[in-house]
């Protein structure tokens, strides 16, 4: 079988539309299954209704299959095939298969007017081109591998050439001088030299082996000693673990004491935290109460200032109007202390003018229980009284007193006398029934 015949067979089978891809590597070794499949396919192309045995598992069945196919082909086409070559299923069987496939290929080429055959031929051409691409790729990879191996061998050629030439010269000398002993002596010397070298190597290996055996024994001795020490240490550890230390009682006692102290510490820390929280709450409440007292005091001071100025303006009106003062009925009055009047006079220039106009006819201020001063609050404190000549008014401890607590509404219809209230200039105050202030 030649390479060209195998290539032609592959191309013919592709053009005929064989369902399997046939490569040139398939027939390097016997492949009876592929040959049987090709024969069956070609026979059915000649005779679609042909019946042949399909079992090729045993040698007898394969022989029967080859005989049946050859008989059918001879009867159908008149082509006689070599059954022995077909049974071999190697490269020689390709020649017989090519003869049979060539008949179909020639018949297919003779038909040119069938549209269906033209379409199938186009498909075959396309499939053959695709197969050629695959084969080309495989060949390219093989070429690359062969080139790489050839390059490596050429690189080693310089080293191998001398040995090859020497061997060739030796063989030539042996062939020329078969009767002489010179070449035999050379061979004997070379062999003896090799034996001597190997003997030296063997001696070195024996020495190394003996040294390794001695090292092995030494290591085994050390291992045994270490194992004995390990056993002794384990026994000692077991004995120490079974004996209770002398300090364990003291240790347990100190541990219990530490736990007790820790519990006390935790309890005291919680109590301290709670007390700090309570102090914060009390401080906040105290701060709020003081702020509320300050606000109440400011409201009362403002009310006193307003009442004082209304009183002063009312006296001026009485002086400029009728000689008899008007009766104050059903009003709440409050006389500011002298400290409040002085503070109000310092803060307002209009107040100074009003005081100058009033002169000595203005009523003297009513003193509040506490020291007089520039502060408007004077000596007011929790639980202090506002004292008059004959009565007093109670101010609450929180500094917030209602109008009923400060001034009570007058129940009578007493008049303000000219002599006692404004004419004498003494400015005495008379408290009647503990509810009204007469000026």
TrEMBL record:
One of its GO terms (biological process) is cilium assembly. Residues 322-332 have a biased composition (Basic residues). Keywords: Cell projection, Cilium, Cilium biogenesis/degradation, Coiled coil. GO terms for cellular component: cilium; intraciliary transport particle B; microtubule organizing center. Residues 348-360, 401-421 have a biased composition (Acidic residues). It is found in: Cell projection, Cilium. The keyword Coiled coil applies. Residues 315-439 are annotated as: Disordered. Residues 370-382 have a biased composition (Gly residues). Pfam families: Cluap1. Belongs to the CLUAP1 family. This is Clusterin-associated protein 1. It comes from Polarella glacialis (Dinoflagellate).
């Amino acid at each position: 079988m030649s390479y060209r015949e195998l290539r032609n067979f592959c191309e013919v089978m592709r053009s005929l539309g064989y369902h399997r891809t046939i490569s040139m590597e398939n027939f390097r070794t016997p492949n009876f299954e592929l040959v049987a499949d090709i024969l069956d396919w070609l026979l059915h192309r000649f005779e679609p209704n042909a019946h042949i045995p399909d079992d090729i598992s045993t040698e007898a069945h394969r022989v029967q299959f080859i005989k049946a196919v050859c008989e059918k082909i001879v009867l159908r086409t008149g082509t006689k095939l070599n059954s022995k070559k077909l049974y071999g299923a190697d490269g020689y069987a390709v020649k017989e298969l090519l003869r049979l496939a060539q008949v179909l290929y020639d018949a297919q080429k003779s038909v040119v007017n069938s549209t269906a055959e033209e379409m199938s031929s186009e498909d075959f051409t396309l499939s053959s081109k695709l197969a050629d691409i695959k084969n080309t790729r495989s060949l390219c990879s093989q070429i690359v591998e062969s080139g790489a191996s050839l390059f490596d061998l050429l690189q080693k050629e310089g080293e191998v050439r001398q040995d090859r030439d020497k061997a060739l010269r030796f063989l030539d000398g042996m062939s020329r001088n078969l009767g002489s002993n010179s070449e035999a002596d050379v061979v004997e010397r070379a062999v003896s030299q090799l034996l001597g070298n190997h003997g030296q190597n063997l001696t070195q290996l024996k020495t190394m082996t003996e040294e390794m055996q001695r090292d092995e024994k030494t290591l085994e001795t050390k291992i045994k000693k270490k194992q004995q020490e390990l056993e002794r240490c384990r026994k000692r550890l077991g004995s120490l673990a079974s004996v209770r230390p002398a300090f364990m009682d003291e240790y347990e006692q100190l541990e219990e004491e530490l736990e007790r102290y820790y519990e006390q510490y935790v309890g005291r820390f919680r109590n301290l935290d709670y007390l700090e929280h309570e102090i914060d709450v009390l401080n906040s409440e105290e701060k709020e109460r003081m702020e509320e007292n300050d606000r109440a005091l400011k409201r009362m001071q403002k009310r006193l200032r307003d009442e004082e100025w209304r009183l002063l303006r009312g006296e001026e009106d009485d002086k400029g109007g009728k000689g008899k003062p008007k009766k104050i009925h059903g009003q709440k009055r409050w006389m500011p202390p002298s400290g409040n009047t002085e503070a109000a006079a310092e803060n307002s220039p209009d107040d100074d003018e009003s005081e100058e106009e009033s002169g000595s006819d203005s009523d003297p201020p009513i003193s509040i229980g506490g020291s007089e001063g520039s502060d408007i609050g004077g000596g007011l404190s929790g639980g202090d009284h506002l004292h008059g000549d004959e009565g007093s008014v109670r101010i609450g401890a929180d500094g917030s007193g209602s109008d009923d607590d400060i001034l009570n509404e007058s129940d009578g219809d007493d008049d303000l006398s000219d002599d006692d209230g404004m004419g004498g200039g003494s400015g005495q105050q008379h408290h009647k029934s503990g509810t009204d202030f007469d000026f």
